[in-house]
Structures are given as structure tokens and as C-alpha cells.
Amino acid sequence: MSFWPLAATFAAINLAAFAAFGVDKARARRGAGRIRERTLLLLALIGGTPGAYLGRWRFRHKTRKVAFFLPLHAIALAQAVLLGWLLMRT
């Protein structure tokens, strides 16, 4: 896969993760139906970790819940290790 389609996909996933945190925070304030934590974590897992972290920070959302942020940190660590491994191979 060439660079630009991959970069566009990465940007779209991160934008979706960021937006999902904002939507979930707005719904939480209104007491409306929420986005499942599993969905937020899945967005991070498929490459939206930077967007998820930015959304957590910008919307001050899911910052205290250990049951959420530990899996998010684990996903980020696993992705960092994988990226490091891939870079070391080239």
C-alpha cells in the first residue's frame, strides 16, 4: 500500500476516535445513550490511539476510570513495541 492512502486511513481512524470521545462526553452530560467503552478501545486498537488520547485530554473524558485507561495504555504500549519492532527490521 502506498503512503497517501495509508496516511489518509490513519487520519480518518484518529479523527473518528477523537470525535467518538467528544460525542460520548456530550451524551454523558445529557444523560443520553453512550458509546460503549469497547467501541472506544476498538478505535484505539485499529490505529486511533493518538486520536483517543487527544480526545481524552481535550474533552476531559475517561481520565479517572482505571478499568478504561489501563487497557488504553496497554494498547498504546503494544502499538509502540510493534512500531519499534517494525522499524528495527528495516
Describe this structure in words.
With 90 residues, the chain is mostly helical. The protein has one domain. 83% of the residues lie in helices and 0% in strands. Helix 2 packs across helix 3.
Feature tags:
90 residues; mainly alpha; 3 helices; globular
* Protein structure class: mainly alpha
**What's the helix-strand series?**
HHH
Q: Identify low-pLDDT runs.
A: none
Mean pLDDT: 95
How many helical elements?
3
Domain unit count:
1
| Largest sheet properties | none
Measured on Cα atoms, how large is the radius of gyration?
Answer: 14 Å
Strand content: under 5%
Query: Which range best describes the helical content: under 10%, 10-25%, 25-40%, 40-55%, 55-70% or over 70%?
Result: over 70%
Give the CA-CA distance, first to last residue: 16 Å
Q: What is the strand tally?
A: 0
Shape descriptor: globular
Short recap of the structure:
This protein is an all-alpha fold. It is built from 3 helices and no strands.
